[in-house]
């Protein structure tokens, strides 16, 4: 799986992601965004959750995307990014 395939799967599920999980995918970062992924790499996804979203939405979105993508997914909310890593995330970020 490559970054373009990941983006396509996410784009195809955009309506479900917005409505069911109260979220908008901002982009992909980490090893897949840099083209350095390995067989066991997870997919790091930056998400903006809407007002009223809960931890159940975050967890459910992770499960949903793992099923769709067939890989472990790490969901990171824009609200929870630590300042120390924000610059690295934004440098790698591939918008969806």
Mean pLDDT: 95
Helix content: 40-55%
Number of domains: 1
Number of helices: 5
C-alpha Rg (nearest Å): 12 Å
Order of strands across the main sheet: 3-2-1-4
Number of strands: 4
User: Which superfamily, in CATH terms, is the homologous superfamily?
Assistant: Beta Polymerase, domain 2
Straight-line distance between termini: 16 Å
**Which architecture does the CATH hierarchy give at level 2?**
2-Layer Sandwich
Uncertain stretches: none
Q: Return the string of H and E elements.
A: HHEHEHEHE
Task: Describe the overall structure.
This protein has helices at 3-12, 14-21, 31-34, 55-69, 83-92; strands spanning 23-29, 43-49, 73-77, 94-95. It is of the alpha+beta class. The chain has a four-stranded mixed beta sheet with strand order 3-2-1-4, sandwiched between helices. Helix 4 (55-69) links the parallel strand 2 and strand 3 (73-77).
Using brief descriptors, characterize the structure shown:
single chain, alpha+beta, 4 strands
Give the SSE map:
Layout: H1 3-12, H2 14-21, E1 23-29, H3 31-34, E2 43-49, H4 55-69, E3 73-77, H5 83-92, E4 94-95
Parallel strand pairs: 2-3
Antiparallel strand pairs: 1-2, 1-4
Summarize the structure.
With 96 residues, the protein is α+β, with helices and mostly antiparallel strands. 49% of the residues lie in helices and 22% in strands.
């Amino acid at each position: 799986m490559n970054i373009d395939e990941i983006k396509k799967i996410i784009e195809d599920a955009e309506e479900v992601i917005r409505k069911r999980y109260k979220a908008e995918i901002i982009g992909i970062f980490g090893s897949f965004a840099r083209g350095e992924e390995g067989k066991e790499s997870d997919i790091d996804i930056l998400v903006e959750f809407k007002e009223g979203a809960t931890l159940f939405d975050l967890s459910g979105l992770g499960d949903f995307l793992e099923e769709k993508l067939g890989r472990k997914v790490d969901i990171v909310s824009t609200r929870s990014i630590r300042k120390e890593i924000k610059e690295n995330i934004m440098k790698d970020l591939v918008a969806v």
